[in-house]
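Re: folding output
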Amino acid sequence: MTDHALRLLRQHPHLAELAVFPFDFDLDRADHVEPVRLASGGPLRPVAGDGTGGTYFVCADGSVLYADSEGSAGIIGSTVDEALEIVIGLPGWRDHLDLSPADGPEKILARVAETEEEFREDYGIDEARPELRTALGLPERSPVELIAMLHTALLRTEPDFLLLNAEEGCAYDLLDRHPRPPLWEPVLARGRADLAALRTGDRTVWDATAEDPVRRRLALRAAQFDRADGDLELLRYLLRYEAESSMTDELRLAAVLVGLHGHTEDLPLLHGVRETDFDTACGLSEMPGPDADGAVLREWALGLDEVFFRTDPTDEPSDTWTDLAADQGLTELARATLIRRLDEITMDQGVLRRPGMPKTLDASPLSSLARDFEQLGDLPQALRAQRLYAALQDTAWDRVSARRTQARLERETGQLAQAGRTLAVLREILSAPGDDSLRHWEGTNLGRFIAEEHYARARDLADADLPEEARTALVAADEIRGELSGAAATAVRELAEDVAERVQDPRDLG
């Protein structure tokens, strides 16, 4: 990481003035138009801005992220020095974001020359550029080299440098529109490599892949899209091990891939897998009997294959790839994809319309997003998805259940006051539900969970040294508990006593 040129700009006012005019890199404009943060949570240091309201930020590894005032952002250099090379060498760089090395030198040089001719009408770039380059110790590069550097930098923006509005949590658009590899390619890369190694017949590879749950799943997914007649034995091997994970999508996939070969000698193996536990028995319940012939076995596998699996990875639901990304530690790749998906729904809830039912929304993708974000440890994004999910619920039961989860996420992100307001709305629904879906909530797990969340908030308020608020919350919790019956009431008793002891006013102890 180097910021030699940036230090020189800060030390020499004349150089700083040249950077501002004509190259629009102003050290005094380092305040962005709105609070922002990286989705990854990494540090972000503003160092300069431009006349359009854009800002240059330095990231933890020294990369420079440029964010404009219209909601777009992208990496433009791996260091400040590199970013300054581009800003000085391509003063019209914002007009060249669509260019790439694939365009060829002739097109690149023509475009840059046209842009610079427009600059020459107003700015003395031919005099200022060599002076600033020399003073900052920057090399002289051709426009073709600089476009290649800019293109490489831009492609690094996601997933590690995804910029968010810090208050709303939504993502900035990319500065450029260059194509990126589809999500499945980096996610499936390990699985494809393992599948190729498995096909060599090396038993140490077989053992290492089969015994690692993530590698095993990835190898099976690779086999889903690259089917070969010679894979049957390795598929049997992976199937035996996948049964240890109970009823997974990959277990069904392995069973289907084995069954597609139509060998009756595989029926004992398949039935053994089905009988692993209750879940596998249910998930593979339609499997043909042990005396079935090969044609029936193959017909069963074909039916499941058509319903559940694809032969082209681009047709696979994106949830498959985000789950597998998270499982193998590609956290930022999964997070960026999920944030983009949530942004799409936030901007247009019409994407939730049920097929054939244009007036009905299916909010379940929001609930799934909330769970996925929570599994990634990104509670702010989980809360963002959960709030929208709660707002779209129809029945009283669903509204209460969704707001209970919303309150928990607010509490766990330290928004205790907001959690209190959400629980107050929840209690209003309980008192005036508007339908009969909550008729017996007092004796259900939902009632228990509602009470537990009220007590948890009272406890956290006490821990935050907010005794008055804690006592008020405890009163509300006790009122909810007073309405519970049966097992629900019993399940809450110990928590209620523990929180009451913690919240109790010391003046009441004597």
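--- second protein (sequence, then structure) ---
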Amino acid sequence: MDGLLGRFLSFDKMITGTIVKFLYYILLALVILGGIFFLLQSLFSGNFGMFLGGLILLPLAIIYVRMICEMFLVIFRISDNLAALRQMKENETK
């Protein structure tokens, strides 16, 4: 099992970093579309206070999504670095 399927099933290389990046773009689009919908709905309903709240919450939601995805990426990069250190240590002892 040296092919793509073998690498996928052996968990030697993490693919979650790519998935997190893809998930970030999906969540970013959802947050922006939801924010625009919220802003337009509050504007057309005449609730100006809710509109201002949406203007404040939209950038904060974008930053929050970015922070969550970055935390996941940091965890997986730590895992990759630990695997590389383990491999270096095994090569030194041989």
